[in-house]
Amino acid sequence: MADNEDKEVVALEQNVGKVTIEDRGSNKPEKEEEGGVMGFIKDVGEAIGGIFSWGKPDADISGFNIPVLNTKRAEIIIDVLITNPNPIPIPLVDMIYDISSDGRKLCAGTIPDAGTIHAHGKETVKIPLTLIYKDIVDTFDDIEPGQVLPYLATVTLLIDVPVIGRITIPLEKKGEIPIPHKPDVDLDKIDWDHLSLEETSATLHLTLKNMNKFDIGINSFQYDLQIADVSIGQASLKESTEVKGEGVGSLQVPITFRPKDFGGALWDIMRGRGTGYTMVGAIEVDTPFGPMHLPFSKTSETTLKGKDEVSYH
């Protein structure tokens, strides 16, 4: 390859050397001067074109990746693979991108001076962009959290190729992207496993409703639970549970706490009387679109009596 390129360069030098510039003098008409310069450029172009075989670059959207996906935003990277068949590097002037869903523009922009594609080479150029879900939901009334949107990603490349000139390469890719929704978590009941004033262990029975139209696989569950305005504890639980889109799943979460920290509120809970609770936390899930971090928060009031009656003496 190197020998062929050396021969091409030598041939180019010989051909360009044959092109002569004639001093037309300052008294010549301006049109003649312009003709001389343009003629020189034309001669050089013909000399170069006669030596090299020029071709149009090829391009393709080789990837549409979402490395960050949560309830607030999606960070997207579009990979564009560009092939340069020519013997010299070519400049990538502009990259114009647009992401839409059923004609609704979600994101658009231009990356100027996007780089240079090496001679006889391939380059993957990355286009980073961010979708802010709040902006999308506020703009389009028919888009809500929990939906899966069809998308059309278009990329237009503007490339300067010697001899050929500036060319435009349009690309597109279709797929789906979610608008994640927080899960709805309810504390149904408490099973008392061991009762003691010093330490009590129990099992929380939780109901988790998947508010999204896509399935989620729960990998871990983190929570902080307050009952009667007293923190009953916090923990991180490894849990493997799949919940279908818009489906309901159950979780059993063990917890240990000291009853004497609660005062009389604990006894009301154990007797099945209504009490308020607040639970905040997050679940780590797998989805068809990649891993997600889904936070949740729930404040409610319920009776938290276990399955079996408990006697207090």
Automatic annotation (TrEMBL):
Residues annotated as domain Water stress and hypersensitive response: 59-176, 185-301
One GO CC term on file: cytosol
InterPro entries in the record: Lea14-like, LEA_2, WHy-dom
Pfam families noted in UniProt: LEA_2
Alphabetical GO biological process terms: response to desiccation
Family per record: Belongs to the LEA type 2 family.
Name the UniProt record assigns to this protein: Water stress and hypersensitive response domain-containing protein
